[in-house]
Predict the structure of tRNA 5-carboxymethoxyuridine methyltransferase.
Amino acid sequence: MSDQAHFDRLSERFGRNIYDTPKGRIRLHFLQQDLQALLEQDSELLILDAGGGQGQFARHCASLGHRVVLCDLSEQMLDAADQLNREQGLEDRIELVRDSIENFCHHDTRQYQLILCHAVLEWVQESEPLLQALTQRLGNAGRLSLMYYNRHSIVLRNALRGNFRKALSDQFGGDGGGLTPTHAREPQQIDSQLQALGMSIEAQLGVRCFYDYLPPKVRQTYAFEDILELEQRFRDQLPYRQMARYIHLIAAKTQQ
């Protein structure tokens, strides 16, 4: 199944299971917090949302006065984005492009002050070609906001659940038919690849350091705000950020 067909089929489930849940709210909350200083500056930014799906974060950026190019391969994802953009009166600030990220970056000539690539890296076979394509579209001192599925968390979660064979197998990808990513990433490898591309990592934070490990009874006992406070307290500290379900890093392109 092609990537486009896969996400076309999952478009409705994606919105329901990713963003309309506490884990999705945690993810969106921290992405907005981490990028607040960049997005609330006075100047208008040109932003590329690479693999932005239904445009939840693109609309957040557009609502703050920025211009966003949302590139995604799924037609159904972009149809949903277009409808939601219009409902919120943001269609003039968000340009929708249906293409693969690498192909778009190869043909587009614009330089972006900020590129968003959230929960995309884990769906491609090789991470380096995608990172290279993205960094080529960054202007000098431009920022890359990269969030990816953390391999360490998959090992730990399987061990805690007693899935020892899977934890030892080094095979952590989903079967390609659902929302479980196919290629969890090792943080040190991603850091090395970015540095080799002339990127300087400015911030590195965990997204859901604890939530995915909590038993259902604990999730139901505590208020969402209490869980959020716990996540906030430890997400920038080692070893907790290395256990997070996702790693969010912000990297700057070195002046050339």
Summary: The mean pLDDT is 90. Residues 3-253 form a domain with the Rossmann fold fold (CATH 3.40.50.150). The radius of gyration is 18 Å. The beta strands are 46-50, 67-72, 94-98, 112-118, 138-149, 199-207, 246-253.
